[in-house]
Amino acid sequence: MSAPTSEPGYQPALLEQRHRQSFPTARAIMALVLREMASTYGRSPLGYLWAILMPAAGVAVLAVCFSLLMRSPPLGTNFTIFFATGMVPYRMWRGLVGKVAGAMQYSRQLLVYPRVTFLDAILARFLLNALTDLLVFYIVIAGIMLAFETRVAPDLPKIALGLVMLMALAFSVGVFNCFLNWVLPFWERLWNITTRPLFFISGVLFLVEDLPDPYSKWLMWNPLVHGIGQLRKGFYPYYDAPYIDVMYVFTISLVAGVLGLLFLRRFNLDILDR
């Protein structure tokens, strides 16, 4: 297929074509997924395997190191599994936000074709990296449970709900950041700086409800606290976590996601013309 020309009236015609193809196609998404796998992880299957094993090993090493410093976890008897159930989902959320936010820039050359929409590019990048992060999560947790006496009882529906909450939040924030990266050229750098403290205020190393008031109430405005708390609830059957508000997380995700998609739909041609 030949590249579109810059003739007058091209943009309105392209916009009309994009409006007719407003829904992403499975073929385009799969092609974009395979393209990213080939360009990011190499054409060898070992490249993708290495991309899974490296972060899994890194998180496992961090979990063991922190367990040596903090032997008594807030939940259970093993700090390694406690840390991993907070660190891995937090890392997944942060990584997905960055990948989704950069999806249009990454697939910029392909987005000039009417059959490839901005939503195709976003969904392809989200799906590939979400599946990769889920494999990392499984490998880390399974490895820790085999290596240590963790005394946890995984409840798959509760764990799945926690992961869905975090992935929905990551997708919506990433979509909104994708638009803001275009409106504010400094936004990506500002986002990376201002969100670094989230690791310490999202309940990765502690339980939010153990903090005194009003600090615990303040931190509960952080939607990551609810997602990580729900996921931990799936590993510790005796952990009640009454503060968890599933609808709060999904409401924030819905609002941010819808606004981001509406803005991108309205201005995606302007973004590509920059």
At a glance:
This protein has 274 residues and is mostly helical. Helix content is 70%, strand content 0%.
Blueprint (SSEs and pairs):
Layout lengths: L9 H11 L5 H16 L3 H25 L9 H23 L1 H4 L11 H30 L8 H28 L3 H8 L3 H4 L13 H5 L3 H11 L12 H27 L2
Helix pairs in contact: 2-6, 3-4, 3-6, 4-6, 4-7, 4-11, 7-11, 7-12, 11-12
Describe this structure in words.
- This protein has one domain.
- The chain starts with 9 loop residues before the first helix and ends with a helix.
- Helices cover 70% and strands 0% of the residues.
- Helix 3 crosses helix 4, helix 7 runs parallel beside helix 12 and helix 11 crosses helix 12.
- The protein has twelve helices and no strands.
- It is mostly helical and 274 residues long.
- The N terminus is likely disordered.
The geometry reads as globular
- The Cα radius of gyration reads 21 Å
Q: Helix proportion of residues, in percent?
A: over 70%
In total, the number of domains comes to 1
Q: Catalogue the unreliable spans.
A: 1-11, 13-22
Characterize the largest beta sheet: strand count, sense, and whether it forms a barrel: none
What is the oligomeric state here?
Answer: single chain
Tell me the span between the first and last alpha carbons: 23 Å
